[in-house]
Amino acid sequence: MRSTGALYLVTHVTSIAAVILYGRLLTDPSSGTNPNVQVGALLEIILALAVIGTAVALYPFVKRHGQAIALGYIGLRTLEAAVIAVGVLPLLALPSADAATLVTLHNGTFLLGPGFVCGTNTVLAAFLVLKAGLAPKIVPVLGLVGGPLLFLVSAAQLLGVVAQFSVAAAVPAIPVLAWELGLALSLIVRGNSRERVAAHVLPTPAHG
Predict the structure, then answer these.
(1) Exposed (0-12), middle (13-18) or buried (19+): which is 142, by Cβ within 10 Å?
(2) CA distance 119 to 153
(3) What CA–CA distance (Å, rounded) separates 128 from 126?
(4) Number of domains making up the chain
(5) Assigned domain for 205 exists
């Protein structure tokens, strides 16, 4: 359980650090080549692997509360990771190609993966966590509210109603951030109890 929580923390640290390292490049490709792009790309690769890891590690604790939904979460997290990985490729080509086009491609994959797909899989995971009782109720509720908000704001960005890198786009994503951080900390803290882990992994023995 603690490893699952740690993986969720890794996804946040790497995603935030990558954006910081990219700096103005994501909003102003003409700002020049950023020497930190390669490090940011490496962090996004680690992010993609950790995204898949969260779903696989969470699966044993939630599968008996909805196996089809749990498998759907793994599939969507894998899709999210794949889109993130695709978005890394154009940034690696920056030194030898048109910056504006490549950065636009990266930002498009960011909108699809951590936007639309993440908004959808957040609802699935929050539902499972709520049923399994793996975190205080407020944590999955944040996910159930934040997931649809993230999807809607992503649609607004796609349609040009909201700028992609703006306060209006960032604020609705706060509940999803709070949900994942809350889940990570809950899993790490509750992972200290082997009895709690066993209760969620092992089937309930039959009586009579």
Answers:
(1) buried
(2) 10
(3) 5
(4) 1
(5) no
Determine the average pLDDT of the residues in 119-142.
95
| C-alpha distance from residue 8 to each of 3, 77, 102 (Å) | 9, 12, 28
Region of 142 please: left (phi>0), alpha (psi -120 to 50) or beta: alpha
For residue 27 the two structure tokens come to 């909003």
CA distance 90 to 39: 14
Give, in order, the Cα–Cα distances in Å from 147 to each of 44, 101, 112, 204.
Answer: 21, 29, 14, 31
Contact between 79 and 101 (Cβ < 8 Å): no
**203, part of any domain:** no
What amino acid is encoded at 14 in this protein? Answer: T
For residue 201, is pLDDT > 80? no
Q: Retrieve residue 188's tokens.
A: 């790490």
23 domain-assigned: yes
Neighbours of 66 (CB within 10 A): 16
Dist CA 90 CA 4 (whole Å): 30
Which residue range is the domain that position 148 belongs to? 2-193
- The pTM of this model reads 0.80
Residue 200 lies in a domain: no
